[in-house]
Write the C-alpha coordinates for this entry.
Amino acid sequence: MSTAVEGLDLPALEHFFAEQVPGFRGALDATLITGGRSNLTYLLTDGQTRWVLRRPPLGGLTPSAHDVLREYRVVSALSGSDVPVPRAVTSSESGPLGVPFSVVEHVAGPVLRTEDDLRALSQVDVDRCAHALIDVLARLHAVTPETVGLGAFGRPQGYLARQIRRWNDQWQRVRTRDLPDVDALHTRLATDPPAESGASIVHGDFRIDNVILAPDDPAQVRALIDWEMAALGDPLADLGVHIAYSHPAFAAVLGGSAASTSPRMPAASALVDRYAEVTGRDLSNFPFYLGLGYFKIAVIAEGIHHRFQQGVTRGPGFDTVGEATAPLAAAGLRALSGSPQSA
Protein backbone atom coordinates (compact mmCIF):
# COMPACT_ATOMS: atom_id res chain seq x y z
CA MET A 1 0.00 0.00 0.00
CA SER A 2 1.14 3.56 -0.72
CA THR A 3 2.48 5.45 2.28
CA ALA A 4 3.21 8.84 0.72
CA VAL A 5 1.41 10.41 -2.24
CA GLU A 6 1.89 14.12 -2.84
CA GLY A 7 -1.33 16.05 -2.38
CA LEU A 8 -2.96 13.35 -0.22
CA ASP A 9 -2.86 12.53 3.49
CA LEU A 10 -3.62 8.83 3.21
CA PRO A 11 -4.06 8.03 6.94
CA ALA A 12 -6.51 10.94 7.32
CA LEU A 13 -8.26 9.94 4.10
CA GLU A 14 -8.60 6.34 5.30
CA HIS A 15 -10.25 7.56 8.50
CA PHE A 16 -12.62 9.70 6.41
CA PHE A 17 -13.48 6.76 4.12
CA ALA A 18 -14.18 4.54 7.14
CA GLU A 19 -16.84 7.02 8.22
CA GLN A 20 -18.24 8.03 4.82
CA VAL A 21 -17.88 5.14 2.36
CA PRO A 22 -19.93 1.98 2.99
CA GLY A 23 -17.97 -1.22 2.46
CA PHE A 24 -14.54 0.40 2.73
CA ARG A 25 -11.97 -2.25 3.68
CA GLY A 26 -9.66 -0.05 5.74
CA ALA A 27 -6.51 0.74 3.74
CA LEU A 28 -6.00 2.84 0.61
CA ASP A 29 -3.56 2.64 -2.24
CA ALA A 30 -3.37 5.84 -4.31
CA THR A 31 -1.89 6.66 -7.70
CA LEU A 32 -1.77 10.06 -9.39
CA ILE A 33 -3.48 9.69 -12.76
CA THR A 34 -1.43 11.31 -15.50
CA GLY A 35 -2.97 13.40 -18.27
CA GLY A 36 -4.63 16.04 -16.11
CA ARG A 37 -3.63 19.68 -16.57
CA SER A 38 -5.86 21.26 -13.93
CA ASN A 39 -7.21 19.49 -10.85
CA LEU A 40 -5.14 16.63 -9.47
CA THR A 41 -6.83 13.29 -10.09
CA TYR A 42 -6.02 10.11 -8.19
CA LEU A 43 -7.05 6.49 -8.54
CA LEU A 44 -7.81 5.03 -5.12
CA THR A 45 -8.40 1.40 -4.20
CA ASP A 46 -8.82 -0.66 -1.06
CA GLY A 47 -7.99 -3.83 -2.99
CA GLN A 48 -11.60 -4.50 -3.90
CA THR A 49 -13.25 -1.24 -4.98
CA ARG A 50 -11.78 1.59 -7.05
CA TRP A 51 -12.62 5.27 -6.79
CA VAL A 52 -11.42 8.51 -8.37
CA LEU A 53 -10.58 11.46 -6.12
CA ARG A 54 -10.17 15.00 -7.45
CA ARG A 55 -8.67 17.93 -5.62
CA PRO A 56 -7.39 21.39 -6.69
CA PRO A 57 -3.81 21.80 -7.92
CA LEU A 58 -1.02 22.39 -5.42
CA GLY A 59 -0.63 26.07 -6.34
CA GLY A 60 -1.53 28.87 -8.74
CA LEU A 61 -5.24 28.71 -7.98
CA THR A 62 -7.67 30.88 -9.94
CA PRO A 63 -11.19 31.49 -8.65
CA SER A 64 -13.84 29.02 -9.87
CA ALA A 65 -11.52 27.19 -12.28
CA HIS A 66 -10.86 24.22 -9.98
CA ASP A 67 -14.22 23.85 -8.22
CA VAL A 68 -14.41 20.14 -7.44
CA LEU A 69 -17.43 20.57 -5.15
CA ARG A 70 -19.34 22.24 -7.97
CA GLU A 71 -18.36 19.30 -10.13
CA TYR A 72 -19.60 16.85 -7.50
CA ARG A 73 -22.97 18.59 -7.24
CA VAL A 74 -23.54 18.33 -10.99
CA VAL A 75 -22.48 14.69 -11.19
CA SER A 76 -24.81 13.85 -8.30
CA ALA A 77 -27.70 15.68 -9.96
CA LEU A 78 -27.23 14.05 -13.37
CA SER A 79 -27.15 10.52 -11.99
CA GLY A 80 -30.06 8.68 -13.58
CA SER A 81 -30.47 11.24 -16.35
CA ASP A 82 -29.84 10.73 -20.06
CA VAL A 83 -26.29 12.04 -19.55
CA PRO A 84 -23.72 9.37 -18.59
CA VAL A 85 -21.75 10.30 -15.45
CA PRO A 86 -19.83 8.39 -12.76
CA ARG A 87 -21.69 7.55 -9.55
CA ALA A 88 -21.04 10.18 -6.88
CA VAL A 89 -19.61 8.71 -3.65
CA THR A 90 -18.61 11.47 -1.22
CA SER A 91 -17.05 14.91 -0.95
CA SER A 92 -15.54 17.27 1.60
CA GLU A 93 -15.07 21.04 1.73
CA SER A 94 -11.87 20.86 3.78
CA GLY A 95 -11.76 17.82 6.03
CA PRO A 96 -8.80 15.42 5.88
CA LEU A 97 -6.92 17.11 3.03
CA GLY A 98 -7.37 20.72 4.05
CA VAL A 99 -8.78 21.50 0.60
CA PRO A 100 -12.04 20.57 -1.14
CA PHE A 101 -12.14 17.18 -2.81
CA SER A 102 -14.66 14.85 -4.39
CA VAL A 103 -14.82 11.09 -4.82
CA VAL A 104 -16.73 9.22 -7.53
CA GLU A 105 -16.80 5.64 -8.68
CA HIS A 106 -14.10 4.55 -11.10
CA VAL A 107 -15.55 3.91 -14.54
CA ALA A 108 -13.57 1.40 -16.59
CA GLY A 109 -12.95 2.18 -20.24
CA PRO A 110 -10.55 3.88 -22.63
CA VAL A 111 -9.96 7.62 -22.76
CA LEU A 112 -8.73 8.95 -26.11
CA ARG A 113 -6.13 11.54 -25.16
CA THR A 114 -3.50 11.34 -27.89
CA GLU A 115 -3.19 10.66 -31.58
CA ASP A 116 -1.60 7.34 -30.66
CA ASP A 117 -4.81 6.40 -28.85
CA LEU A 118 -6.72 6.93 -32.10
CA ARG A 119 -4.47 4.61 -34.09
CA ALA A 120 -6.24 1.54 -32.77
CA LEU A 121 -9.52 2.77 -34.31
CA SER A 122 -10.67 2.57 -37.90
CA GLN A 123 -11.64 5.83 -39.58
CA VAL A 124 -15.27 4.73 -39.36
CA ASP A 125 -14.95 4.33 -35.59
CA VAL A 126 -13.16 7.68 -35.20
CA ASP A 127 -16.08 9.35 -36.98
CA ARG A 128 -18.63 7.40 -34.94
CA CYS A 129 -16.90 8.43 -31.71
CA ALA A 130 -16.79 12.11 -32.68
CA HIS A 131 -20.47 12.05 -33.61
CA ALA A 132 -21.37 10.26 -30.36
CA LEU A 133 -19.73 13.10 -28.42
CA ILE A 134 -21.88 15.65 -30.20
CA ASP A 135 -24.96 13.57 -29.43
CA VAL A 136 -24.05 13.42 -25.73
CA LEU A 137 -23.56 17.19 -25.72
CA ALA A 138 -26.99 17.59 -27.29
CA ARG A 139 -28.52 15.33 -24.61
CA LEU A 140 -26.89 17.40 -21.88
CA HIS A 141 -28.28 20.60 -23.35
CA ALA A 142 -31.74 19.02 -23.52
CA VAL A 143 -31.86 18.38 -19.74
CA THR A 144 -34.15 20.79 -17.92
CA PRO A 145 -32.12 21.93 -14.89
CA GLU A 146 -35.15 22.00 -12.58
CA THR A 147 -35.92 18.34 -13.24
CA VAL A 148 -32.55 17.22 -11.86
CA GLY A 149 -32.41 19.64 -8.93
CA LEU A 150 -30.17 22.23 -10.58
CA GLY A 151 -32.72 24.98 -11.03
CA ALA A 152 -30.90 27.09 -8.43
CA PHE A 153 -27.42 26.17 -9.68
CA GLY A 154 -26.84 29.68 -10.97
CA ARG A 155 -28.20 32.52 -13.08
CA PRO A 156 -28.16 31.60 -16.77
CA GLN A 157 -28.99 35.15 -17.85
CA GLY A 158 -25.84 37.15 -18.52
CA TYR A 159 -23.72 34.01 -18.82
CA LEU A 160 -21.73 35.24 -21.83
CA ALA A 161 -20.84 38.57 -20.22
CA ARG A 162 -19.80 36.78 -17.01
CA GLN A 163 -17.65 34.33 -18.95
CA ILE A 164 -15.85 37.10 -20.80
CA ARG A 165 -15.28 38.99 -17.57
CA ARG A 166 -14.27 35.90 -15.58
CA TRP A 167 -11.74 34.61 -18.09
CA ASN A 168 -10.21 38.05 -18.50
CA ASP A 169 -9.99 38.25 -14.73
CA GLN A 170 -8.14 34.94 -14.72
CA TRP A 171 -5.92 36.09 -17.57
CA GLN A 172 -4.82 39.04 -15.44
CA ARG A 173 -4.00 36.63 -12.60
CA VAL A 174 -2.01 34.05 -14.57
CA ARG A 175 -0.40 35.97 -17.45
CA THR A 176 3.35 35.51 -17.54
CA ARG A 177 4.18 37.83 -20.47
CA ASP A 178 2.73 40.43 -22.78
CA LEU A 179 0.57 38.78 -25.45
CA PRO A 180 -1.38 41.47 -27.32
CA ASP A 181 -3.64 39.02 -29.16
CA VAL A 182 -5.12 37.79 -25.89
CA ASP A 183 -6.00 41.33 -24.85
CA ALA A 184 -7.33 42.13 -28.33
CA LEU A 185 -9.48 39.00 -28.30
CA HIS A 186 -10.96 39.97 -24.94
CA THR A 187 -11.72 43.48 -26.18
CA ARG A 188 -13.54 42.22 -29.26
CA LEU A 189 -15.56 39.67 -27.29
CA ALA A 190 -16.55 42.21 -24.65
CA THR A 191 -17.47 44.88 -27.18
CA ASP A 192 -20.17 43.08 -29.12
CA PRO A 193 -21.56 39.85 -27.60
CA PRO A 194 -24.70 38.48 -29.28
CA ALA A 195 -28.02 37.89 -27.57
CA GLU A 196 -27.77 34.57 -25.74
CA SER A 197 -29.08 31.57 -27.67
CA GLY A 198 -30.82 30.01 -24.67
CA ALA A 199 -30.06 28.42 -21.31
CA SER A 200 -29.10 24.90 -20.27
CA ILE A 201 -26.61 22.99 -18.15
CA VAL A 202 -23.22 23.58 -19.75
CA HIS A 203 -20.24 21.33 -19.10
CA GLY A 204 -17.69 24.09 -19.60
CA ASP A 205 -14.77 21.92 -20.79
CA PHE A 206 -16.26 19.53 -23.31
CA ARG A 207 -13.65 17.58 -25.28
CA ILE A 208 -12.84 14.03 -26.32
CA ASP A 209 -10.44 13.27 -23.46
CA ASN A 210 -13.10 14.19 -20.90
CA VAL A 211 -15.17 11.14 -21.76
CA ILE A 212 -14.73 7.48 -20.87
CA LEU A 213 -15.76 5.12 -23.66
CA ALA A 214 -17.00 1.55 -23.68
CA PRO A 215 -14.05 -0.85 -24.20
CA ASP A 216 -15.82 -2.61 -27.06
CA ASP A 217 -17.48 0.37 -28.76
CA PRO A 218 -15.85 3.82 -29.15
CA ALA A 219 -19.24 5.28 -30.08
CA GLN A 220 -20.66 4.47 -26.65
CA VAL A 221 -19.89 7.07 -23.96
CA ARG A 222 -19.83 5.47 -20.52
CA ALA A 223 -19.12 8.66 -18.56
CA LEU A 224 -18.65 12.37 -19.15
CA ILE A 225 -16.15 13.64 -16.57
CA ASP A 226 -14.36 16.83 -15.40
CA TRP A 227 -17.36 19.02 -14.53
CA GLU A 228 -15.62 21.65 -12.38
CA MET A 229 -16.51 24.45 -14.81
CA ALA A 230 -20.17 23.45 -15.20
CA ALA A 231 -22.84 26.14 -14.95
CA LEU A 232 -26.24 27.17 -16.19
CA GLY A 233 -25.73 29.21 -19.31
CA ASP A 234 -25.66 29.45 -23.07
CA PRO A 235 -25.27 25.94 -24.53
CA LEU A 236 -23.45 27.17 -27.64
CA ALA A 237 -20.49 28.06 -25.42
CA ASP A 238 -19.96 24.31 -24.97
CA LEU A 239 -19.95 23.73 -28.71
CA GLY A 240 -17.56 26.65 -29.23
CA VAL A 241 -14.96 25.34 -26.80
CA HIS A 242 -15.34 21.80 -28.15
CA ILE A 243 -14.50 22.99 -31.66
CA ALA A 244 -11.70 25.26 -30.40
CA TYR A 245 -10.01 22.22 -28.89
CA SER A 246 -9.45 20.88 -32.41
CA HIS A 247 -6.94 23.63 -33.25
CA PRO A 248 -3.43 22.18 -33.75
CA ALA A 249 -1.92 24.56 -31.17
CA PHE A 250 -3.85 22.83 -28.40
CA ALA A 251 -1.65 19.73 -28.80
CA ALA A 252 1.08 21.56 -26.86
CA VAL A 253 -1.21 21.66 -23.82
CA LEU A 254 -1.24 17.86 -23.72
CA GLY A 255 2.47 17.38 -24.21
CA GLY A 256 2.56 17.60 -28.01
CA SER A 257 -0.14 15.14 -29.02
CA ALA A 258 -3.91 15.47 -28.56
CA ALA A 259 -6.69 13.31 -29.96
CA SER A 260 -8.86 16.40 -30.40
CA THR A 261 -6.35 17.97 -32.80
CA SER A 262 -5.85 14.87 -34.96
CA PRO A 263 -6.46 15.32 -38.71
CA ARG A 264 -8.40 12.05 -38.49
CA MET A 265 -11.17 13.77 -36.55
CA PRO A 266 -14.16 14.95 -38.61
CA ALA A 267 -14.03 18.50 -39.91
CA ALA A 268 -15.26 21.13 -37.46
CA SER A 269 -17.98 22.14 -39.91
CA ALA A 270 -19.34 18.58 -39.95
CA LEU A 271 -19.56 18.50 -36.16
CA VAL A 272 -21.25 21.90 -36.02
CA ASP A 273 -23.74 20.74 -38.65
CA ARG A 274 -24.48 17.59 -36.67
CA TYR A 275 -25.13 19.60 -33.50
CA ALA A 276 -27.48 21.91 -35.42
CA GLU A 277 -29.30 18.93 -36.90
CA VAL A 278 -29.71 17.10 -33.57
CA THR A 279 -30.69 20.15 -31.50
CA GLY A 280 -32.39 22.42 -34.03
CA ARG A 281 -30.55 25.40 -32.55
CA ASP A 282 -29.73 28.51 -34.58
CA LEU A 283 -25.96 28.70 -35.09
CA SER A 284 -25.81 31.94 -37.08
CA ASN A 285 -23.72 33.58 -34.30
CA PHE A 286 -21.39 30.61 -33.88
CA PRO A 287 -18.20 32.58 -34.80
CA PHE A 288 -18.61 34.50 -31.52
CA TYR A 289 -18.90 31.29 -29.50
CA LEU A 290 -15.85 29.86 -31.25
CA GLY A 291 -13.88 33.03 -30.46
CA LEU A 292 -14.96 32.75 -26.83
CA GLY A 293 -13.85 29.12 -26.80
CA TYR A 294 -10.41 30.10 -28.03
CA PHE A 295 -10.15 32.85 -25.43
CA LYS A 296 -11.03 30.42 -22.68
CA ILE A 297 -8.52 27.72 -23.65
CA ALA A 298 -5.79 30.30 -24.28
CA VAL A 299 -6.21 31.45 -20.67
CA ILE A 300 -6.31 27.83 -19.48
CA ALA A 301 -3.04 27.16 -21.31
CA GLU A 302 -1.44 30.23 -19.75
CA GLY A 303 -2.66 29.18 -16.31
CA ILE A 304 -1.00 25.79 -16.69
CA HIS A 305 2.16 27.48 -17.96
CA HIS A 306 2.05 29.80 -14.94
CA ARG A 307 1.86 26.81 -12.55
CA PHE A 308 4.70 25.12 -14.43
CA GLN A 309 6.87 28.19 -13.94
CA GLN A 310 6.03 28.13 -10.24
CA GLY A 311 7.16 24.51 -10.05
CA VAL A 312 3.84 23.16 -8.79
CA THR A 313 2.82 20.99 -11.77
CA ARG A 314 3.31 17.24 -11.52
CA GLY A 315 4.10 14.83 -14.32
CA PRO A 316 5.73 15.26 -17.75
CA GLY A 317 4.85 17.46 -20.72
CA PHE A 318 4.21 20.79 -19.03
CA ASP A 319 7.22 22.55 -20.57
CA THR A 320 5.43 22.97 -23.93
CA VAL A 321 2.09 24.31 -22.70
CA GLY A 322 3.11 27.97 -22.88
CA GLU A 323 3.59 27.60 -26.64
CA ALA A 324 -0.19 27.29 -27.09
CA THR A 325 -1.42 30.57 -25.63
CA ALA A 326 -0.56 33.01 -28.43
CA PRO A 327 -1.67 30.89 -31.42
CA LEU A 328 -4.96 30.03 -29.69
CA ALA A 329 -5.67 33.72 -29.12
CA ALA A 330 -4.80 34.50 -32.73
CA ALA A 331 -7.18 31.76 -33.87
CA GLY A 332 -9.89 33.37 -31.76
CA LEU A 333 -9.41 36.68 -33.52
CA ARG A 334 -9.64 34.92 -36.90
CA ALA A 335 -12.80 33.13 -35.78
CA LEU A 336 -14.47 36.43 -34.91
CA SER A 337 -13.57 37.65 -38.39
CA GLY A 338 -15.33 34.66 -39.93
CA SER A 339 -12.16 32.79 -40.94
CA PRO A 340 -12.06 28.98 -40.72
CA GLN A 341 -11.31 27.73 -37.21
CA SER A 342 -8.30 25.75 -38.33
CA ALA A 343 -6.60 28.68 -40.06
